[in-house]
Amino acid sequence: MISIIIPCYNCVSTIKRAVDSVLNQKYQHYELLLVDNRSSDGTIHLLNHYKERFPEKIRVFHEYKRGAPAARNKGLSAARGEWIQFLDADDELHPEKLSRQLDLATNSMAGIVIGNYILEWIKGKKRLHLKRPAMSDPWEGLVTSNLGITSSNLWKKKDLLEVNGWNERLTSSQEYDLLFRLLKNRSEVVFDEAFYTMVYHNRNSTSKSTDKKKLIQIVRNRINLRREIKEYLILTKQLTANMNRTIDTYIYFELKRNSPEIFDYVKEYLKQNQLEVPWNTMIKINSRIALRKLLYYIQGIYNSPSEWDLRRNLS
């Protein structure tokens, strides 16, 4: 059985799309766990409506600690399935997503199925349709954020419980923190080449001061995770010269692409930390960032989270 867990916070406008994509799955031996996370827009009434319509399939829970990680852990603790499908309330699954990935999992010793996904980046009436393929090397994919995403992957419950599930203290980088702990715990990985998950990203407008503080914390979390990965690879004698450059290049890329918004933080970090990034790679990154931002300004979509595949800057 697969347990599908959807954390729900003020998602009246999107939850139907997510739930319908579950109900339309070719694989039907599943349970759907809807976890309300202190919604205030009537979400809970909609969740209860689904529960009444499909009582044999759907259960509804409440999690009062704020944040998707806490809601996912609530669902994980109640899950009856051997496999876990986490699904965000604004995403959707291809009808054959579960059946395909379960076949891949059962035909291997995998604890994680890494899935590709399609990203719909939305700002007002403008849309950007992007395919995000995963990397075939788990550690390189982990470092460069190319190891799937929450909704595109399939997770073995046993492996998740062994690492204590999601880190509820983190405000960002939660899924890659989880993937890091799973890889450290020697979870086996298998890759799904199909693009069977649709991820939607709506850019919400908030104050610049709030954005700046949040952005610094997001960047700090991403960098700290890569530093932890490097320390682990050094400790286990797995750090190669190429992987060291990959980690430092990711950190440099992350800093430079956010430099206009958090210039002082970036300047101080680069002053205090020496990164092993070749000059030609630095030039390539800066040139492509400038070009990409120009294109996004023209299109009216700026600073997309998926700017482009970092792999282009590593060659």
From TrEMBL:
| Organism domain of life | Bacteria
Specify one Pfam family.
Glycos_transf_2
Q: Which InterPro entries match?
A: Glyco_trans_2-like (IPR001173), Glycosyltransf_2 (IPR050834), Nucleotide-diphossugar_trans (IPR029044)
Q: Please verify whether the record's keywords include Chloroplast.
A: no
What keywords would UniProt list here?
Transferase
Molecular function terms from GO: transferase activity
User: Does the keyword Transferase belong to this entry?
Assistant: yes
Q: Where is the Glycosyltransferase 2-like domain?
A: 3-120
Recorded protein name is Glycosyltransferase involved in cell wall biosynthesis
Q: Which organism is it from?
A: Anseongella ginsenosidimutans
